[in-house]
Write a structure and sequence with these properties.
Radius of gyration: 30 Å
Distance between the termini: 41 Å
Strand content: 15-25%
CATH architecture of the largest domain: 2-Layer Sandwich
CATH topology of the largest domain: BirA Bifunctional Protein, domain 2
Shape: elongated
Length: 527
């Protein structure tokens, strides 16, 4: 008999159901497409025949990776000779991803959390009921198996089965091929994407390594990992529109945190000199390839340090991370080589408009020159009222600077107007001791020497409140308790936030932030 290959979904039962079939189905299954309803009917038939669909008794002793590690380099002859001296039976569990029937033999591909391994079963080596189960298996079913390790004539490591148990019956057919899952479906059904696409699994395994490295790095530098509230009575820590919710018991509105900054700095007041938190922030803004409303940040604060100290720390942290992953400071992102060799370049914010953006030097000090150049590069730009020099420079920066940066650059000396929580520069109070780290056209980190003058902070909060009254929905609000905390005295300090999702994008060569978040926000779908 000619062999047949069963690709994902192709061994599903027929899709035409009789009224009698429908009457036997679970009410929910009757609402599903015919192909899926037929899978449910098949499962019901197996259950009635005595097959346990969801047992919890199988315990694998090996994985695909451990078998490959133990036997992968041995030849077919070496395995045969080894088998004569010791038991090469191993047990594994995983999902059936391919099924090939050759008359009285069946080949299966099993996927577990570590990788794939081929399975081989013969009709004359199984009892009739067990063989019938082997034939009835659908792609997506999860099985537990035991078998002897050997290599086929083509050299593929395989388990010659003597036992197979159904562990979990799959009721929803798999996609025919991975490429037939459109991008939106990959994000909506990440659980399918993960077992259909090995590259997605690699991205998230690497994400876990990156997060682990960040925690180890901070702990090794004496930082204490802490947890601060997710629900804030006053949104603060960054300029952004918050998500609002209601606390019924307190009869009070709360906000999902925009940033943990103000709480972490309260801990500096309390005497913890080095703290960090790696957790979620929430900002009620649009979706894009660079933005997700729920995202992961690592924020850290160090007493008796300034932003220059954090630049050096950040260089050490990120260059070390790149070297740990790639064995080099250089790697490729979206076809461009990125060089994390320290030290990273440093450019002042206003100077970057000329040095990186190619604007004339007058834009650093002259509002009219800034406006004329802005209208030259963007004729559609229409100023609202009398824009300040800082507002015009910010518009120029967005159009000229960030997108033209490839290798890491520390952008420093941001205007005080743009930095309501940062310490003023001692020599020039119009700028702050702040930096943003930009790589490959996107901000990766933001840091500054912290403002610990309580009355200056109060005045800046009031300026933010005035912006809100003029219609800015992202302006900060007055947090009197935070001002009170500063009045007790906060040591001189510096703080930084690192965008973990964007960092993972960079180090996994991912173009879209949704590719590095397990379950990104999506618009509702009709089930």
């Amino acid at each position: 008999m000619a062999p047949t290959d069963c690709e994902a979904g192709s061994n599903a039962p027929g899709s035409v159901l009789s009224p009698e079939d429908l009457s036997r189905l679970h009410p929910f299954a009757r609402e599903l497409p015919p192909l899926i309803a037929a899978q449910c009917l098949k499962a019901d038939r197996l259950k009635n025949a005595g097959v346990r669909l969801y047992p919890n008794s199988f315990r694998p002793s090996s994985s695909s990776a451990s078998i490959v590690s133990e036997f992968g380099l041995k030849s077919r002859e070496e395995l045969e000779e080894l088998s004569s001296r010791e038991d090469l039976t191993r047990t594994v569990a995983g999902r059936i991803m391919a099924k090939r029937v050759h008359g009285k033999t069946v080949f299966l591909n099993l996927l577990d959390s570590q990788g794939k391994i081929q399975l081989y079963a013969r009709r004359d080596e199984f009892p009739e009921d067990a063989w019938n189960l082997v034939k009835e298996l659908d792609l997506g079913d999860i099985v537990g198996v035991a078998g002897k390790v050997f290599k086929t004539k083509t050299g593929e490591l395989t388990l010659h089965l003597n036992r197979l148990e159904l562990v979990t019956k799959s009721l929803w057919p798999l996609p025919e091929k991975y490429h037939e899952m459109d991008v939106e479906l990959k994000y909506r059904r990440r659980y399918v994407d993960l077992f259909m696409n090995g590259e997605s699994r690699k991205v998230f395994v690497l994400r876990s390594r990156i997060v682990d490295y960040l925690r180890r790095f901070m702990s090794s530098r004496g930082f204490l990992e802490v947890e601060t509230p997710m629900l804030h009575p006053i949104p603060g820590g960054a300029k952004a529109l918050p998500f609002a919710t209601r606390h019924n018991a307190l009869k009070q509105d709360f906000f999902l945190r925009i940033a943990p900054e103000l709480y972490l700095k309260r801990l500096l007041v309390g005497g913890f000199d080095r703290v960090f938190e790696l957790n979620r922030n929430f900002r009620n803004e649009g979706l894009s390839v660079k933005h997700n409303p729920e995202f992961t940040m690592m924020e850290f604060y160090q007493s008796y340090a300034d932003y220059q100290d954090l630049m050096r720390l950040t260089e050490e942290m990120l260059s070390g991370l790149a070297f740990e992953i790639f064995g080099s400071w250089k790697f490729v992102y979206q076809g461009q080589e990125i060089d994390f060799t320290p030290p990273f370049k440093r450019v002042g914010y206003a100077d970057s408009l000329c040095e990186i953006g190619g604007a004339p030097p007058e834009v650093r000090t002259d509002p009219r020159a800034a406006l004329l150049h802005l209208q030259k590069i963007d004729p559609a730009y229409e100023p609202k009222g009398e824009p300040s020099l800082v507002a015009l420079q910010e518009a120029l920066f967005d159009r000229l600077v960030e997108r033209n940066i490839t290798d890491p650059v520390f952008l420093t000396s941001y205007p005080t107007e743009m930095s309501p929580l940062a310490r003023r520069n001692d020599a020039n109070p119009n700028i702050t001791d702040r930096f943003e780290l930009v790589v490959a056209g996107r901000e990766i980190a933001n840091a500054f020497s912290e403002l610990n003058d309580a009355l200056d902070q109060y005045d800046r909060f009031l300026a933010q409140v005035e912006e809100g009254e003029r219609g800015d929905p992202e302006s900060m609000r007055l947090d009197k308790d935070y001002v009170r905390a500063l009045m007790y005295g906060m040591p001189p300090a510096a703080g930084e936030g690192v965008g973990v999702d964007r960092l993972v994008m960079l180090l996994t060569d991912s173009a879209n932030i949704r590719d590095v978040i397990f379950f990104p926000q999506m618009r509702p779908e009709a089930f």
